[in-house]
Amino acid sequence: MASDNYNKITSINFKELESIVGKEFISSDPEQLNKYGQDETEDLVFLADVVVKPQTVEQVSAIAKLCNGNKIPLTTRGAGTGLSGGALPIRGGVLMSMEKLNKIIEIDERNLQATVEPAVINYIFQDEVKKSGLFYPPDPASWGSCSLGGNIAHSSGGPKAVKYGTTRDYVLNLQVVLANGDVIWTGANTLKYSTGYNLTHLMIGSEGTLGIVTKIVFKLIPLPKHDLLMLIPFTSAEQACKAVGEVFRQGITPSAMEFMERDAIDWSIKYSGEPGFEIKPEWQALLLVEVDGNNMDVLMGDCEIISTVMQNNGCDEILFAESAEQKNALWKIRRKVGEAVKSNSVYKEEDTVVPRAELPALLKGVKDIGKKYGFKSVCYGHAGDGNLHVNIIKGDLSDEIWNKDLPKGITEIFELCKALGGTISGEHGIGLVQKNYLPIVFTSNHLDLMRGIKRIFDPNGILNPGKIFD
Amino acid sequence: MASDNYNKITSINFKELESIVGKEFISSDPEQLNKYGQDETEDLVFLADVVVKPQTVEQVSAIAKLCNGNKIPLTTRGAGTGLSGGALPIRGGVLMSMEKLNKIIEIDERNLQATVEPAVINYIFQDEVKKSGLFYPPDPASWGSCSLGGNIAHSSGGPKAVKYGTTRDYVLNLQVVLANGDVIWTGANTLKYSTGYNLTHLMIGSEGTLGIVTKIVFKLIPLPKHDLLMLIPFTSAEQACKAVGEVFRQGITPSAMEFMERDAIDWSIKYSGEPGFEIKPEWQALLLVEVDGNNMDVLMGDCEIISTVMQNNGCDEILFAESAEQKNALWKIRRKVGEAVKSNSVYKEEDTVVPRAELPALLKGVKDIGKKYGFKSVCYGHAGDGNLHVNIIKGDLSDEIWNKDLPKGITEIFELCKALGGTISGEHGIGLVQKNYLPIVFTSNHLDLMRGIKRIFDPNGILNPGKIFD
Question: Which of A385, B18, B183, B308 is exposed most, by the fewest CB atoms within 10 A?
Answer without folding.
Answer: B308
